[in-house]
Specification:
Blueprint (H helix, E strand, L loop, with lengths): L2 H8 L2 H23 L9 H10 L1 H18 L2 H5 L1 H16 L6 H27 L8 H9 L4 H30 L2 H4 L7
């Protein structure tokens, strides 16, 4: 199958209908976590779910669109992290393609892989665009580490990994649980499902 045909199949009608639902899910849950100043974000459950169901390109698009729309509506900081959200969807889709959402323990491994990819993408944005402070609950960890004498880059790496690992593992497990609860006739309508 050519890459053009594959891309067209990734964005079938059902996927195009699911993406806006996933975006709303991401923003609503993310806003709740932000309002509560939680040290995790929980703003990519919809993105991971689209990645699982429809593949890496649909996951990438969902993540990017989520953060761009969120940035325009309420939280300009979210738009700066659109590449991170896109990476989450891309890696989730790749994990699904290789069978990493077939069992809960594989979903846990997927969460770790997603966390690593998201962290590598997020650290430079957080350091160079925001000086390490973005207004999330995780900023307390960065402030504490800075107060103990660590440098900014090291503090942000520890903070981002420390918040991304539990966040993405929980997100991957929740997304896996939703995926497993979906009726098979619905799942079969997607071009890339486990």
């Amino acid at each position: 199958m050519s890459s053009g045909t594959r891309l067209k199949n990734d964005f079938n009608t059902i996927t195009l209908a699911l993406i806006p639902v996933a975006i709303v899910l991401n923003i609503v849950v993310g806003q709740i976590a932000s309002a509560l100043k939680l040290p995790i974000f929980l703003d990519s459950i919809g993105t991971v779910l689209v990645g699982i169901l429809a593949g890496p390109w649909a996951g990438l698009a969902t993540g990017l669109l989520t953060n761009v729309i969120w940035g325009m509506i309420t939280n300009p900081v979210a738009a700066a992290f659109a590449p991170v959200a896109g990476m989450i969807g891309l890696v989730a889709g790749l994990c699904s393609r290789f069978g990493f959402f077939s069992h809960w323990w594989k979903a846990l491994i997927s969460g770790l892989l997603i966390a690593c990819a998201a962290s590598v993408t997020a650290v430079p944005i957080r350091v160079y665009m925001f000086g390490g402070v973005t207004g999330s609950g995780a900023d307390f960890i960065t402030a504490y580490l800075l107060a103990t004498g660590r440098d900014l880059f090291g503090s942000v790496i520890i903070t981002v990994l420390g918040s991304n690992i539990p966040d993405k593992v929980v997100t991957a497990l929740l997304s896996w649980a939703i995926f497993k609860a979906l009726p098979l006739r619905f799942v079969d309508r997607f071009s890339r499902a486990d």
